[in-house]
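Table S2 (text version). Query chain:
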Amino acid sequence: MKELEKTYDPSQIEDRLYRKWEEKKYFHAEVDRSKKPFTIVMPPPNVTGQLHMGHALDNTMQDILIRFKRMQGYSALWQPGTDHAAIATEVKVTEKLKEQGIDKKEIGREEFLKHAWAWKEEYGNRIVSQLKKMGSSADWDRERFTMDEGCSKAVKEVFVRLYEKGYIYKGSRIINWCPVCKTSISDAEVIHEEQDGFFWHINYPVVGEPGRFVEIATTRPETLLGDTAVAVNPDDERYTDIVGKMLELPLTDRQIPVIADPYVDKEFGTGCVKITPAHDPNDFEVGKRHNLEEINILNDDATINELGGKYAGMDRYEARKQMVADLDALGLLVKVVPHSHNVGTHDRCKTTVEPMIKPQWFVRMKEMGQAALDIIKTDELSFVPEQFDKTYIHWLENIRDWCISRQLWWGHRIPAWYCDECGETIVSRETPTVCPKCGCTHLTQDEDTLDTWFSSALWPFSTLGWPDKTPEYEYFYPTSVLVTGYDIIFFWVIRMVFSALEQTGKSPFKHVLIHGLVRDDQGRKMSKSLGNGIDPLEVIDKYGADALRLTLITGNAPGNDMRFYWERVENSRNFANKIWNATRFIMMNMEKADFSDVKLSDLTIADRWILSKVNTLAKEMTDNMEKFELGIAVSKVYDFIWEEFCDWYIEMVKPRLYNDEDETKAAALWTLKTVLIQALKLLHPYMPFITEEIFCNIQDEEESIMISKWPEYTDEWNFETDEAAVDTIKAAVRAIRNLRTGMNVPPSRKAKVYVVSAKEDVRYIFESSKSFFATLGYASEVHVQEDKTGIDENAVSTLIHDAAVYIPLEELVDIDKEIERLEKEAAKLAGEIKRASGMLANPKFVGKAPAAKVEEEKAKLAKYTEMSEQVAERLAQLKK
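Corresponding structure-token output:
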């Protein structure tokens, strides 16, 4: 006979079970045409990454779905991998080299990349091992990396295809420039934060008209050095006469024209807008329409360049300060007005980004963006919850061409070469050796790398072997569901959708399951700066992975943020202990009878009730999980195990197990084991370790719960009549317990219980359930009868549907002692009522005491009065 350890200790079982699962290849999914495929691609964590609560939630949700589908008989592939995370990794490697006294630029690109790959080898596996600690049942045999050979081949293929189609082009456009990381970044990587700033109102003198000025207002006075026009609205009558005139550009020796453009809002500010085409995306468009010069006045580190005259070399904010002082000295600074506005910052280093004109590689988004918009209107792609459609649609309706080049060394290098002789651009899957235009063999590859998201956008199909038509790609693609946070819908989800539609003709997944953020117990976002992050590994070390997983999913609704409380983890651990102890109880009693041949006809009302309950539970949980209502599903199995199974059913069967004469013992043991195994299977996707350990100890028919069959509803186990019968018994037990609690009767004091009902079927329920009803209702005897014959007049009673329950008063309490106790209680309450009434009748107290104190005394008086009435009622009953 197998045995469970006396106490549940997750640290003793979790690593051992995970090793077993890996050795047995349970996580591995094969192409199997006899099964339906179910595929999830893991959002690839960065190789610089450390497991945080967001990862823990994201991967727990994915693991629940994959374990559920695996048990349902699908060939369930959870495709794992990691992302090279271009900027993040390059920054880390650069910092590490700096600590060793090594300058990245001095060692050059090739040497730097050796260090980057070494970093990847050292740290790349760290987050994977942490995900394993969570119990993640991903197919690690198929693990991929965004820069491995297969993914790199897919990246080149897509780049060349899009270039040949005219969707990829190189041109000078306004991009977001990070002066710290010294690279372009995409719109999605810019966080717009509300910051306090100023509007500087500046006078630009009109040429040839002394004393006449045009007043503009700007939040970035340093960009004045790159102004090439001032614009007014063509319908603004105030400035009709000034359009076409020239202005003196302050602090420079240049003159700039006044132009008319409908872009200007005549109701905002002065109605005059400075136009700086090289440093503002809107101004860039205005400049194109009016053929304005584009003057870039910034170096890559956001210092003023040589075009800035006396301000050259200054930091942008230092220059701003000096320029404002100079404008003031010239009498051109009209006023400075405080102004709160949105400022774009780089999501990684938090630096304020600068819009700059740079020659970069772009993806034209019009056609692919439209395809991604069209697909959301079909049933090929849906968001859970549906409201996140709006985020997706809004982003696509406002999408601009995507800047994909990055001034980094770590990443996929752009597959473009330039002829040193004639300047021809060659885009190719393979490294070219000769210029197709002039025949020159001196070719230089583009220095830039691709945006990280360019490769991760291909993740759902590049990981399966595309562009080759591999068996995996043909079988597992498109994938079934993507699980991700709402914060990367536009970063990643949209890019995967348009990339997949363009390259494969199909949506990359059918459903996008969105989850929220894990916040601290005060509702704040977890962050390094606040120091409020909680390490999932710390939680696992203390309470086990199962407890953490259950905590993250309990009460979790798709799309909603959740708060993390340590108390909830303790509750989850207590739940694990409850299951463990219940199982130990069952196993200790299993030898009391041979239950191998038990038939459904051998079962009692209680047995059929719990069997019917777990049967319905399987149906409801399956329905919830198919709809991705993972939090609702787990609350149902939690309530079933804790309340129905442990608190009710196990207590119901104890008298049968302890009675050597009871002939239903085998039926009880069969039911206990059968229902526990069903419940464990339903709980397994959420708490894989404890369910596996118990499953492998309580039965020998199957080697692992992971590959056992998911419970399905069966009509054979549907016993509605018995469910109703036991609900009647439970109602009577609750009523008795409430009555006894109200009279302070200890559980050790047993009493006769009379159940009176005119209905024969109700009497039958209690007659056939006497053994466990007596135990649960603390009854010394149970009498079931049609009327009140033989029941004492002073018996206390309580009503349930179609029946009344009576208990002789003298069996519950010593009447004389209870009268004595209640009279003392009545006297004490009378004293409190007198005191409170006296205070409230005193005008000095009511007039001078704080209002809260007066209200407190009123509440006390009401409470004591009510209690006094209850005591008087009890005394009258006892003295009859």
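Notes on Table S2: The longest strand covers residues 190-205. Residues 104-133 form the longest helix (30 residues).
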